[in-house]
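Anyone able to model this chain together with heme C?
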Amino acid sequence: METSQMKKILSLILIMFVSSVFASAGSPDAGKTKSGTCVACHGDDGNSLNPAWPKLAGQYSDYLSKQLFEYRKGPDGDRNDPTMYGMVANLSDEDIHDLSSFYATQKPTIGNARSDLVELGARIYLGGNISSGVTACVACHGPKGLGNNLAGFPKVSGQHAQYINDQLRAFKEGKRANDSAGMMRMISARMSDAEIEAVSSYIEGLH
Ligand code: HEC
Ligand code: HEC
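re: yes, here you go
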């Protein structure tokens, strides 16, 4: 191949790479405009009031996009939810990146752990359960529940206890199967109902 042709191809690849980076960054302003259909459940700023609807405020944009792409696959996907499928079925990739970057820039609200559950919740979150093989949540979600974006570990800090509880059950029953290498399915399968309830409450007050 001629050098000039080679250079053209290389610069094309570079342009494709640069534009894909910009495309996946998303625009928070465009996302805010597009969030009109989400407000009823997730709130103006991504802090939902109903505890069954997740807070999105301050969550990593990459994690949010990943969830929206998975909902968009519908019944064939690893996170099938009829409500969210209806909300995202007609969104473009760009819409998804814009919406995710908007919610990522919002400030999350924090709740309170129930005083009767906080002791068991803290024990599981920080130490796991050695006898049943539950890994401590802190190992991946961090001491303050801030997760790790590059590793794909979401923030959980301040999330509604009911939503956390629902997700742990969904992982446990295999209804939610979009966790890489099955990490969350493996962990939740070893948890008792009481441990799930307590750790969910602990997370609601974690910050
Ligand atoms: C009718 C209520 C409703 C509307 C409207 C709605 N959602 Fe949701 N959303 C939910 C529920 C319920 C869940 C949890 C579903 C599950 O269990 O997976 C959810 C989950 C999510 C999640 C996953 C959060 C996480 O922590 O994993 C994201 C992201 C999301 N919604 C974004 C949106 C966006 C963006 C819109 C608007 C285009 C929207 N939602 C509209 C109810 C709603
Ligand atoms: C080995 C790492 C690891 C450990 C340990 C871990 N998690 Fe996770 N967790 C993940 C990953 C990865 C995901 C994201 C899955 C995805 O991409 O949808 C996740 C997702 C979650 C979610 C869903 C968040 C949302 O917004 O929907 C909850 C809730 C959660 N974890 C709770 C826990 C709890 C409670 C523990 C401890 C009992 C725990 N995790 C331990 C890796 C881990």
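Residues 54, 66, 124, 134-135, 137, 139-141, 152-154, 156, 164, 167-168, 178-180, 183-184, 187, 199 surround heme C (ligand 2) (CB under 6 Å).
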